[in-house]
Amino acid sequence: MTMPRGSGLLLHISSLPSAEGIGTLGREAFRWIDRLAGAGQRSWQFLPLGPTGYGNSPYQSYSAFAGNPLLIDLELLREQGWLEGETQKEGASDSKRVDYERLRPCKEADLRRACRLFHERAPRPWRERFRAFELAQVAWLEDYALFMTLHRLAEDQPWNRWEEDWKHRDPGAMEQVRREAFDEIEYRKIEQFFFFEQWEALRKYAKEKGITLIGDLPIYVSYDSSDCWAHPEIFSLDEKLEPAFVAGVPPDYFSETGQLWGNPLYDWERLKATGYRWWIERLEHCFRLFDWVRIDHFRGFEAYWSIPAGAETAREGEWRPGPGEKFFQALEDALGDLPLIAEDLGIITPQVEALRDRFALPGMKVLQFAFDGNPSNPYLPHNHRRRCVLYTGTHDNDTLMGWFQSLSDRRYVLKYLDCSGEDFLWTMLRSHQCSVAAMAILPLQDLLGLGSEARMNVPGTAEGNWEWRCTPDQMAGSAEAFERLGMLSRLYGRV
After folding, report:
1. Rg of the chain on CA atoms, in Å
2. Residue 343 annotated among the catalytic residues of the structure
3. pLDDT digits over 15-65, tens only?
4. Which of 191, 224, 344, 396 is catalytic?
5. pLDDT value of position 54
6. Environment class of residue 390 by beta-carbon count within 10 Å: exposed (0-12), middle (13-18) or buried (19+)?
7. Over 70: is that where the pLDDT of 90 sits?
8. pLDDT for residue 145 is more than 90
9. Beta bridge partners of 45
10. DSSP label at 23?
């Protein structure tokens, strides 16, 4: 697909201002779309939307298909009549960070009340909409609801620690759980119904305002997920259903020892034998939700870093061939044009580039990677090509100002940009907007000139990530920055 020239912002939904302790799909999300449209922006990019588990990472989700219940807006549920009485406020005290530990039990209690009210009182038209949703999502919803029910019954232990009948999905045991825990299973389904109802309303509004939505698809899924539990045959597991090899990357820009993600690897031969059915269903689901999808760690489809389970660091891995061209051809045959953005950062070989270009997928460029003193650096603006998406930084980078302030030697950056340290930010943003890259995306933190305190994630660390929120005061005070961004976008043909 051809990506039109444009500009946009990266802001995860959880980072929106909200009185609920986390950004939601409610009014602030609609106001955010208005703000983007008012500044002539074309796109809103966000992180994966799945329900988060350990570490609260959107890249370690309980499901590759489900939505994160924490992003459901409670006030919208109240307006629809599904929530009565006061909501629990204990988890909503901090406007600067998401306090997941306090937020999660409070929000779950409110959602349980809303789902119970829907189950008891929903009139026929609403019940028909819910049943239609169940049928439309049959490929994943039943497995997810059953998995999350068992997870709760097992006191949130990962599924490899469940009793054997549950772990191996014994039909008799599963039927017994369906009977005895019917209400819990129904709760999980209604919760997902609420999420996707709210999502569709937001998506419709974005389309009306001319804003394209850019989703994010992690290449791997969490081991402790309904996908791995329900489809163990498509993953690299041993006879005990434990991971035999896990995912990660070798030493790179972010880490001297590489990154040990721990996700189970795919059994690509088994997937090939199915015609890549699970992947086709996954992408079809994404394309119904988003206009474009950033596919994380694209190079893993050409060759992936395989680390023996139990290894202490990613150094112990090795490269193995991925599914390559036949995989993407199968996707294209089943789904047509692929509106994918290839995350092609890191160790990229000519073979990876050839695979990306064979299917005309735009890649990524990051300005923070550009200034090593080499004029041939592909991330420098004068080396960009049209078919790519340009970022000042990603969710894994420091903020632009945090990065600049951490440089021990700023001379090359300032000389290249022909600016002083005082006007660095907007000179860099001008360079970002005037690039030939088709799409120019910047995190909201960079537009606002925030420092390292606003960083979203530090790869290789387990605590303090995914918590940053834009405060109401920061959002209210952003009008001048958005106006200035809109001027640059118009000046360089991105509106």
Report:
1. 23
2. yes
3. 999 999 999 999 999 999 999 999 999 999 999 999 998 889 999 999 999
4. 396
5. 80
6. buried
7. no
8. yes
9. 10, 214
10. -
Write the pLDDT tens digit of every residue in 303-359: 999 999 999 999 999 999 999 999 999 999 999 999 999 999 987 999 999 999 999
Using alpha carbons, list the distances in angstroms from residue 80 to 76, 83, 119, 327, 410.
Answer: 6, 8, 14, 43, 54
Structure token digits, residue 145: 């609801």
Beta bridge partners of 43: 8, 212
Half-sphere exposure of 455 (CA within 13 A, CB side): 19
Instruction: Give a three-class secondary structure readout of 380-398.
Output: CHHHCCCCEEEECCCCCCC
- pLDDT bracket for residue 246 (50, 70, 90): very high
| φ and ψ of 443, to 5 deg | -65, 150
Say yes or no to pLDDT of 164 above 70: yes
Give pLDDT, residue 93. Answer: 66
CA nearest neighbour of 454 among 463, 445, 462? 445
- Calculate the dihedral angle through the C-alpha atoms of 25, 31, 32, 35, rounding to the nearest 10 degrees: 170
3-state secondary structure of 286: helix
The residue ranges of DSSP E strands in 170-325, in sequence order, are 212-217, 245-249, 259-264, 292-295, 303-308, 318-321
Average pLDDT, the chain: 96
Has residue 436 got a pLDDT over 90? yes
For residues 245 and 281, the answer to whether their CB atoms sit within 8 Å is no
Q: Which of 197, 216, 343, 398 is catalytic?
A: 343
- Which of 296, 302, 398, 467 is flagged as catalytic? 296
Task: Report how far residue 382's alpha carbon sits from residue 43's, in angstroms, rounded to the nearest whole number.
Answer: 24
Q: What confidence tier does 85 reach under pLDDT thresholds 50, 70, 90?
A: confident
**Cα separations in angstroms, 33 against 10, 94, 122, 207, 215:** 12, 24, 30, 10, 15
User: 433 falls in which pLDDT band (50, 70, 90)?
Assistant: very high
On whether the CB atoms of residues 63 and 50 are closer than 8 A, the answer is yes
Q: DSSP label at 155? A: T
